[in-house]
Design a protein that fits this description.
By secondary structure, the protein is an alpha/beta fold. The chain has 15 helices and ten strands. Helix content is about 35%, strand content about 10%.
Length: about 475
C-alpha cells in the first residue's frame, strides 16, 4: 500500500494541524440546549494541509471516469461531456436560485425549461414534457402513472398488466411493480427481436401497455415496431418508450413517429451529463396528444427535477445545433459496428447482424467462457481491461447470454481510441488462450485487486 492510500485517520498524528486561527475566536455555545451539546470531543483526523491535499487528490485519481479514459459501458451511454455545458450549469445566476423563490424572479430558468421542452419535443416527436422526474427510473414510474391515469379517466379500471420484453432493462419490471401493475413477459426470437407471435396471445382488455426500448437492449432495431404498435393499440393498450437508448436514434427516427404514446429520456445519457456513480440524473417524460391532458397529474416531485442536468442538456443541444444533433446517432452506430466487426474473430457474436449504438458478445471464441470449462470468463476480461487503462463494458447483461459482454462506444470517441481498445481486447484474448491465470488474477495494477463481490454486496463495510 502506498503511503497516501491509507485512510485519513491513519495519517493522523496528535497535535498536528492544518490551520492557525487568531486567539479569541472560540464560539460561545452557551445558547445551545444542554442535550444538543457533545459529551466528548469530536473525533477528527489531525493532519497538515499538505497531507489533506495529497490524500484527497490521490483518492480522486483512483476513480475512473469519462474524463480519464474510454468508458464503453453498454446501455449507459457514457459519452464525453463538453466542458462548456458544465460552465453554463455552474453559472451563478442559475446556481443561486432557490426553489421557493417567487415565480416572477425565476423567469430565466423557466425559459430554459420551456425551450428545452420544445427542443426535446422536436427531437422525439412528442407534444410536451414534464421535468419533474429526477432520474430515469423516476421517469419510468411517472410514465406508467400517466398510462394508468389515461385508462382510469376513461373508466377502464381492468387494465392492470404491462408487457415487458425478456431483454428489457431491469428497471422496467421494477417500475411497473412499484406502480401496482402486473408484469407479463414477451419473449425474444433467436435474432434478438420481440417475437410478435408470442406477443399476440398476451394482448387483451387487461393490458395497460407495453414497455419497450428501441433499439433494444441488444442494440437491435425492432423492425416490426409498426406491427407491434398496431397490435397493442388494437387491444386498447399504450406504448411506453424507455429512452435509455435514444442516443442511437438522434437524427434518424423519432419514437413519436413509431407509435409510442409515452417516453422518458435520460438527459444524463443522451444529452450530456457526467452520471457515473449514481447521479445526478434527469428523466423528463414526454407524451403524445392523447395523453397530454394527464401530463401534470402525477405529483412525483414538489419541484422540477435536477435543474443543473437540464441546463447541461439545453447547452448541449444549442452547442450542436439542429444539423449536428442529427450526426450523433449515425456516428455512434458507426463506432459500435466498427468495434463489433474488428473483434468478432476473437469473441463470440451470437447475433451477427448490423447493430445500432451497442452490441453484445458472449465471451471468448476459444471457449473457457463456461463454468465447467477452464479458461477466462467475462468477469476475467472485464478485470483485465482495468490493467490496460480501459473501463470494463457492461457484463452479464442482458441475461439472454451466459457470458454477455455489452459494449457501447458512443459517438465521442476517436478512431484512435477505438483502435487502442480493439488492440487491447485482442491481447486479452491471446492471454486467455496462452495463460488464463493472468486474467484470473486481474486486475494487477489497482489498489484493490479482486474482492469477494457477492459478500461485499450483501455485507458492505462502509466505514473503518
Amino acid at each position: 500500500m502506498k503511503y497516501y492510500d491509507k485512510l485519513i485517520f491513519e495519517l493522523s498524528h496528535s497535535g498536528r494541524s492544518g490551520y492557525s486561527l487568531p486567539s479569541g475566536f472560540d464560539v460561545d455555545c452557551g445558547c445551545l440546549p444542554q442535550h444538543l451539546k457533545r459529551q466528548s470531543p469530536l473525533e477528527l483526523p489531525e493532519v497538515s494541509e499538505v497531507d489533506v491535499v495529497r490524500h484527497y487528490t490521490n483518492l480522486s485519481q483512483m476513480n475512473f471516469g469519462v474524463d480519464t479514459g474510454f468508458y464503453p459501458l453498454g446501455s449507459c451511454t457514457m459519452k464525453y461531456n463538453p466542458k462548456i455545458n458544465e460552465e453554463m450549469a455552474a453559472h451563478s445566476l442559475f446556481t443561486g436560485l432557490h426553489p421557493l423563490q417567487p415565480a416572477e424572479t425565476v423567469k430565466g430558468a423557466q425559459e430554459v425549461i420551456d425551450n428545452l421542452d420544445h427542443a426535446l419535443a422536436a427531437i422525439t416527436g412528442f407534444k410536451h414534457f414534464t421535468f419533474l422526474p429526477c432520474a430515469g427510473a423516476h421517469g419510468e414510474l411517472t410514465g406508467l402513472m400517466l398510462i394508468r391515469e389515461y385508462h382510469m379517466a376513461r373508466g377502464d379500471f381492468n387494465r392492470t398488466k404491462v408487457i415487458v420484453p425478456d431483454s428489457a432493462h431491469g428497471t422496467n419490471p421494477a417500475s411497473a411493480a412499484v406502480c401496482g401493475l402486473e408484469i407479463v413477459v414477451v419473449k425474444s426470437r433467436p435474432d434478438g427481436l420481440i417475437d410478435v407471435e408470442d406477443l399476440k396471445p398476451l394482448l387483451g382488455p387487461d393490458i395497460a401497455g407495453i414497455m419497450m426500448t428501441n433499439p433494444n437492449t441488444l442494440g437491435l432495431f425492432e423492425k416490426e415496431i409498426g406491427k407491434i404498435s398496431s397490435l397493442v393499440h388494437g387491444c386498447g393498450g399504450l406504448l411506453y418508450y424507455d429512452g435509455a437508448n435514444t442516443n442511437a436514434l438522434l437524427g434518424e427516427v423519432r419514437p413519436g413517429d413509431m407509435g409510442f404514446d409515452v417516453l422518458h429520456l435520460n438527459l444524463h445519457k443522451t444529452f450530456s451529463t457526467p452520471h457515473g456513480g449514481g447521479g445526478p440524473g434527469s428523466g423528463p417524460v414526454g407524451v403524445a396528444e392523447s395523453v397530454l391532458p394527464y401530463l401534470n397529474i402525477p405529483k412525483v416531485s414538489g419541484f422540477h427535477g435536477n435543474f443543473g442536468v437540464m441546463m447541461r442538456a439545453y447547452a448541449y443541444i444549442l452547442m450542436l445545433g439542429r444539423e449536428n444533433v442529427k450526426m450523433a446517432g449515425p456516428y455512434a452506430v458507426l463506432a459500435a459496428n466498427y468495434i463489433k466487426e474488428c473483434l468478432k474473430d476473437a469473441y463470440k457474436l451470437p447475433i451477427p447482424t448490423v447493430c445500432k449504438h451497442e452490441f453484445v458478445y458472449d465471451g471468448l471464441i476459444n471457449d473457457g467462457a463456461h463454468d465447467d470449462v477452464p479458461g477466462a470468463t467475462t468477469l476475467d476480461i472485464a478485470k483485465r481491461l482495468l490493467d490496460y487503462g480501459f473501463h470494463a463494458p457492461t457484463i452479464y447483461f442482458p441475461l439472454l447470454f451466459h457470458q454477455a459482454l455489452m459494449i457501447e462506444p458512443t459517438e465521442t470517441e476517436s478512431k484512435e481510441t477505438l483502435d487502442a481498445f480493439i488492440d487491447v481486447m485482442h491481447k486479452i484474448a491471446e492471454e486467455a488462450a496462452k495463460d488464463p491465470e493472468i486474467l484470473h488474477g486481474a486486475p494487477h495494477d489497482t489498489p484493490i485487486s479482486r474482492p469477494d463481490e457477492t459478500t461485499a454486496a450483501r455485507n458492505p463495510i462502509v466505514k473503518a
